[in-house]
């Protein structure tokens, strides 16, 4: 049979305040304040039946009849309007089927989005059920909670029996027997499963025995961590503190805007003049339209002068601003050639030099403030390991002149931004990639951004703490090889779409780049 259709919960469903919401009363002013971690709600006038209902909610979860006990029809209507207005600060509860004096709360379902709609389903005792592969358990404010990027609610597993039931749902099984080890009756087990399935934390097997999160085409193409990340780094689906809120101001000192210079032999780099660049560079449009990813490189080696110009144009510190004595707690900001959120510029470049005229092979850190390279490692094994990862990312053996490892000083972002710090670092990495592509193209060099790297390996080679600073991107650079960038394969058909003639390979051979 087909899975049941979710529906709204019955009016008798138990209600409660969210576990992180508190209510205070000012009876003289006739008002009540519901305070949550992110938002608060002031209600007035709060007298008579409204005062009674809020007072009962503050005491713990209650079924509707007990919550509204003693209220006439008009009082219940006013209470319904109150609950509707405060819906984002309230929760639904699942209680054991016992007398009020010994009754226990099993699960509290808290909305995490303002448009969250509670849904339940009738779960048959013989139905096969399990947790969705997108559901996960974690600790929050001292309680174990069940969450999912597909669900706009959080299930607080209040009682031990609910926690044991959630663990049991890790494997598919008969719904009526899922709670056998918990001490819950079959009816109580099904009462817990009703909202868990209705909301999407758990799922029932379809007629073919498969579960939707494994078989539905759109869901199959989402990895768990990707969908969770997507749901948490943009506002709307989650109720956590979000954005530039400076969560650690006054508690933790911010990182300096400029990374302290590393110790080691340093090599000063060429600083190009604006006149030198303007005399040679193509137009921006020409650079954008002729940009390609190169996986093979030319016979001529990159020069130290070219590397110096490249780094100067993509990553140098242009301006460094420090707050004055009248602005304690403000963070430093810098300006670099590419934009960054809050002008924080947390990204660093490490340069693995394989072949570069005028510069010895080795692994270097780019000191963007002094525009120089500081030697980190001369070990050939380190270079070989880093290039091995780059080759695996490309899918073939690559021999660039230089491999750039992009790292992030994570706490530079996290000190200011909540819930979006790492996502913003990845956005910055993309912006830096495009800047590197365009500058390399303008200079007549061969660039290639990589989609994967080994953050643990690079942290070891570069002498970094994985949690403080580790890699978020990798980029190849060399001189261009002769011939087409992407040789045509037998049987392929390539059609130029919205591309001017001068965007084709100069000799008319090969195929257009699609990346």
Structure class: alpha+beta
- Cα end-to-end separation: 46 Å
User: How much beta, percentage-wise?
Assistant: 15-25%
Count helical runs. Answer: 15
| Main sheet: strand order | 14-21-20-18-22-25-24
Regions with pLDDT < 50 over 5+ consecutive residues? 506-510
C-alpha geometry: elongated
Q: Percent of residues in helical segments?
A: 25-40%
SS elements, strand count? 25
Q: Biggest sheet, open or closed, and with what strands and sense?
A: 7 strands, antiparallel
Radius of gyration: 30 Å
Report mean pLDDT, rounded to a whole number: 92
Distinctive features:
single chain, 515 residues, alpha+beta, 7-stranded antiparallel sheet, elongated
Question: How would you summarize this macromolecular structure in one to three sentences?
Answer:
With 515 residues, the protein is an alpha+beta fold. The chain has helices at 48-58, 64-67, 73-85, 160-168, 186-199, 212-215, 217-220, 224-232, 274-280, 284-290, 304-314, 380-394, 410-414, 421-442, 455-462, and strands at 14-17, 22-26, 31-35, 40-43, 90-95, 105-111, 128-131, 136-140, 143-147, 153-157, 173-174, 202-204, 243-244, 266-268, 302-303, 319-321, 333-335, 347-353, 356-357, 362-367, 372-377, 402-409, 417-418, 446-450, 469-478.
